[in-house]
Amino acid sequence: MALRAAFYKGTHAGVPGVYNRLVRWWTRSPYSHVELIFHDGEEAASSSFMDGGVRFKKIDFDLALWDFVDLPGALEASAHQWFANHVGQAYDLLGNLHFVVSAIGDDKRKWFCSEAVAAALGMPDPARFDPGTLHAALSFLNQPASAGSLLGKT
Question: What's the domain range around 133?
Fold first, then answer.
């Protein structure tokens, strides 16, 4: 198994389910959460409000509730190290609201899921990514590109 990003398209029960629906509705995306899965398939990492922030976790991924994007294996060591360096940092609930109110800034000591995964992968401006835009960006990387398609000439 290779390094992969897993995007949650399910709905939890109760209040977390309301949050899942709100994120998907506001971002116009089927996704409300993202995890980074390391090559062994035993360890995932993200930032989760329900888990108290940045963490590693063993997750039994139900294929009906998650979509997966393969990532270059060369990113794994640095991504794993990023999470190891940030474990325990708080979830950035207020920062997550900047998708609703753009004047809300980014707290550099707190992380929401897609921000943490984007930062771990070395993407610039990680706070700009919600789960849907991160899925689109990472999926694009897996598409074969021609010079014409990159220049808008297909």
Answer: 4-141
- pTM: predicted TM-score of the whole model, two decimal places: 0.86
For the cut 90, the answer to whether the pLDDT of residue 7 exceeds it is: yes
Query: Residue 147 has what pLDDT?
Result: 46
- Write the pLDDT tens digit of every residue in 72-81: 999 999 999 9
In sign, the C-alpha dihedral spanning 45, 88, 107, 50 is: positive
The answer to the question of residue 63 being in a domain is: yes
Q: Is residue 23 part of a domain?
A: yes
Is 74 within the bounds of a domain?
Answer: yes
pLDDT in tens, 102-115: 656 677 789 999 99
- Cα gap 148→55, rounded to integer Å: 41
* Domain count across the chain: 1
Length reported for the chain = 154
Q: Are 45 and 83 in contact (CB under 8 A)?
A: yes
On the CB side of 20, how many CA atoms lie within 13 Å of its CA?
Answer: 17
3-class DSSP assignment, residue 70: strand
CATH number at residue 125: 3.90.1720.10
